[in-house]
Give the backbone structure.
Amino acid sequence: PVSYCSKTQELFVTLSNFKNPEIRNKVYRKADIRLKIIITKKVNGVWTVTEEFPFNDPTYSVGHPSISSTGDTLFFASNKPNLGFGESDIYMSIRKDGKWGDPINLGDKVNSAYDEMFPFFFDGSVLFYATNKGKNQKADFDLQYICKTGNSFGSPKSLDKFNTEEDDFGLIIHPKGKVGYFVSRRAGGLGDDDIYKVTFKGEYNLELVVMDKKTMQAIPNPKVKFSDNISGALAGVLLSRALPENTTLSVISEIEGYQNSSKSITTI
């Protein structure tokens, strides 16, 4: 796995870590090949290693990097002993003034007593990853995601539409959010693990609350009119409706006792 940051123009790469003498002379298929992360940059047209991630260790694996779009937060997987919840866990390291901070375990919202791997941090707010929370180490991977707000994470959710009874892992999404790729061993493939492409439908869900400007309290069952004449479903103070992509429309309040107000909403 690799991860590219367009802001810093750095490419984070997973490599095999051969420094451990225990595996140097073993046949590959019998060796426990550990992983490490290196950071590269194109210098005079040539990809050049600028540094190794400082928390690499030849006695355990550090790999599967996913760098934030700002270049200051790196998510990765590691089976570092005596620090995680089980087999392989997902960690986060924050870079400040050019120095990587100590790895932070993402905790039991993400990690379990089994394997969590293949993190992918999308749009600065959603972390996708794979987990095999089965009863044995050969359990199949499923895709999950968790949303990040500020410095905290919400509750993990399963990507049920992607998951099968076989391995499903390694989801990455194009920055524009239209196309993604992931790996699966599902029935109908050409071999063992196959790569699949997914396209995301261009529809958004609008959740609208109308508030009293003086009290900042929500107005129950607000009456509003959309410029496309499509109404939304009301539930107390929340009005919800679907919005197509690449659309701009206005919404106007029509509430007795209040001065009408309008708002422009766009999905461009």
